[in-house]
Recover the amino acids of this structure.
């Protein structure tokens, strides 16, 4: 089954008098359950593509379909709902709400989507155990290491059982041991929960985990290979 | 506890000092408002009570039209029995009948035109403070005694003292010639120069015979124990006089419209000052919340990326303000109420108060009047204005774009 189809995506940014190309006619299809890495030099358009697929930003032209839904024409509120229920995000760093504990960070999204307190609590404990944070549920982000913070972010991303997780340089602030632990976690979640992962990264060690490696340059896809 | 509420509460203490400064501004203004408004209410109450108790009373029964056209002809029958009936029915002694006329009053040396008020010697002290203000001599010996009490200024002008004789010359109710000789038995100092110069009292019985009034008089003054009891009393009195269609009952506001106007004018200028205070507090809230929203742009961007809608983020900002304002309200109103309560026991005076005291015949200490209204009116307005001030920072979140918000550091 198909997860995401992008067709002829274009996106430019205006910066002063300059027009910067973010995406230049990008077409790509990603299957459900795949584990994709987006690589490429800085400014090649990885984040722009990820944001477009996650409904965070709308392309200037082209089509994006997730499952059966065309998301490129949706309004802000509908996109927010799709992000809330169907897509998980993990960003580079400072992902978490600093005043909430690990568990509250995870519960927060569930509360927004209207789950009752008992269910929220049950799920958040379970998911935090799954990402290896048992016993740290009541710590605030400031009292967690970078790797632990990213695990909380992952827990938060998958707790609503999304079909797709988008991660933008999730290991950029982590040392190599911690980043390979995080990647192991991604692989495990990909295998056991059949969640599609798309990870933008510069990191060669991260790319080794990919089932499919897509390289970008100047807003274009220059290579796309299965490993 | 709800996560939004928890989040809001913790967000407040991310910048302890800034939050306390804002809350402090609220506390200060609330304290000041409670104090000022209680004092204001207290002074109005005192002003009303003292002015009315000195002469006018809380209400009066009159012949319809007398208040606009106070001619001696506009009197009504059986005034003393009606006053007695009211005393019985209302079960109070704070009811007294009066007659009002004008007469030329002469001593051996000089003559002055005076307002002559006929009063019931037994009951007039219950409705007016004037008899208590006698500086010399005493009140009347009987209802038909040919006696007079006059103000100190008039006594000086007439060059008379206790025991002197005065000649009264005027016209009676029927237009006949009214003339009599009375003995000065008392001299009062009311505190109002006007009254002390131009008003004199004689017993009502003698008044009726002097001015050919028969059993008639001009008004019955009725006082309530307290201003707040006026309404109840008013309906009872109306009931008693219902059978006498020619009579009307006027309350203090109809009898002394100037009093209410003076209060309103004072209230207006006071509220102008309060408004400035409240606007300053609102701006400090606006500033704090704007800063706190701006510095959290990235955080809000992440929440939006997760699928949280701007409404919820706006609600978070409003909740934060609500918590802050509630603190300001509770502490400010609490301290203000304590202060006002303390001063309501020991009294309070400020420079320049004597001037006002002289004008309205007030004592020179004021006692704040503490009520739910005086304690919560100001702080509640501060509360509402603070919330309104945080609407703009909250609304800004609706124009936030998650991607650009997350790009800011
Ligand atoms: N909001 C924006 N305003 C202006 N230019 C932008 C904006 N977002 C992206 N760009 C530009 O678009 C191009 C693609 O940016 P993008 O962030 O997608 O690159 P990237 O591959 O994610 O780079 P990096 O590896 O550094 O994160 C860059 O030249 C960038 O400067
Ligand atoms: Mg990027």
């Amino acid at each position: 089954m198909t997860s995401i189809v992008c067709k002829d995506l274009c996106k430019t940014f205006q910066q002063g008098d300059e027009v910067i190309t973010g995406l230049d006619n990008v077409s790509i299809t990603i299957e459900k359950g795949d584990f994709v890495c987006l690589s490429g030099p800085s400014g090649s358009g990885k984040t722009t593509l990820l944001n477009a697929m996650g409904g965070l930003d709308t392309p200037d032209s082209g089509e994006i379909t997730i499952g059966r839904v065309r998301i490129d024409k949706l309004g802000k509120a509908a996109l927010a709902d799709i992000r809330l229920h169907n897509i998980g995000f993990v960003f580079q760093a400072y992902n978490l709400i600093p005043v909430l504990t690990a568990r509250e960070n995870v519960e927060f999204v569930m509360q927004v989507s209207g789950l009752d307190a008992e269910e929220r609590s049950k799920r958040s404990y379970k998911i935090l155990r799954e990402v290896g944070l048992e016993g740290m549920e009541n710590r605030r982000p400031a009292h967690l290491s970078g790797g632990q913070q990213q695990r909380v972010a992952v827990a938060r991303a998958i707790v609503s059982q999304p079909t797709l997780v988008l991660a933008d340089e999730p290991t950029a602030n982590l040392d190599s041991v911690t980043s390979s632990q995080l990647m192991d976690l991604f692989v495990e979640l990909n295998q056991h929960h059949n969640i599609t992962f798309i990870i933008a990264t510069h990191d060669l060690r991260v790319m080794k985990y990919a089932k499919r490696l897509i390289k970008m340059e100047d807003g274009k896809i220059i290579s796309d290979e299965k490993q | 506890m709800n996560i939004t509420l928890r989040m809001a509460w913790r967000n407040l203490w991310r910048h302890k000092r800034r939050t306390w400064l804002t809350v402090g501004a609220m506390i200060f203004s609330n304290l000041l408002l409670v104090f000022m408004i209680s004092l204001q209410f207290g002074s109005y109450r005192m002003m009303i009570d003292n002015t009315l108790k000195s002469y006018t009373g809380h209400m009066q029964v009159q012949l319809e039209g007398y208040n606009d056209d106070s001619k001696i002809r506009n009197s009504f029958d059986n005034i003393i029995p009606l006053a007695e009936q009211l005393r019985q029915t209302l079960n109070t002694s704070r009811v007294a009948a009066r007659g009002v006329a004008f007469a030329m009053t002469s001593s051996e040396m000089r003559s002055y035109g005076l307002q002559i008020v006929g009063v019931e010697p037994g009951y007039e002290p219950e409705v007016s403070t004037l008899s208590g203000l006698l500086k010399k001599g005493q009140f009347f010996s009987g209802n038909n005694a040919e006696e007079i009490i006059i103000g100190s200024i008039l006594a000086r002008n007439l060059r008379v003292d206790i025991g002197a004789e005065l000649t009264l010359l005027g016209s009676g109710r029927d237009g006949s010639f009214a003339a009599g000789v009375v003995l000065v038995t008392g001299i009062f100092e009311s505190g109002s120069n006007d009254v002390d110069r131009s008003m004199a009292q004689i017993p009502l019985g003698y008044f009726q015979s002097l001015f050919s009034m028969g059993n008639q008089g001009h008004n019955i003054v009725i006082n309530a124990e307290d201003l707040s009891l006026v309404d109840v009393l008013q309906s009872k009195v109306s009931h008693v006089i219902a059978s006498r269609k020619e009579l009307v009952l006027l309350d203090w506001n109809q009898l002394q419209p100037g009093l209410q106007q003076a209060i309103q004018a004072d209230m207006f200028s006071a509220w102008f000052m309060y408004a400035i205070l409240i606007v300053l507090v609102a701006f400090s809230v606006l500033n704090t919340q704007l800063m706190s929203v701006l510095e959290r742009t990235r955080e809000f961007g992440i929440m939006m990326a997760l699928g949280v809608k701007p409404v919820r983020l706006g609600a978070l900002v409003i909740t934060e303000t609500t918590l802050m304002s509630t603190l300001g309200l509770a502490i400010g109103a609490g301290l203000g109420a304590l202060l006002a309560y303390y001063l309501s026991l020991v009294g309070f005076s400020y420079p320049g108060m004597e001037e006002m005291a002289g004008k309205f015949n007030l004592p020179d200490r004021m006692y704040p009047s503490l009520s739910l209204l005086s304690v919560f009116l100001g702080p509640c307005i501060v509360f509402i204005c603070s919330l309104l001030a945080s609407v703009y920072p909250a609304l800004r979140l609706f124009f936030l774009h998650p991607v650009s918000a997350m790009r800011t550091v």
About this structure: The mean pLDDT of chain A is 91.
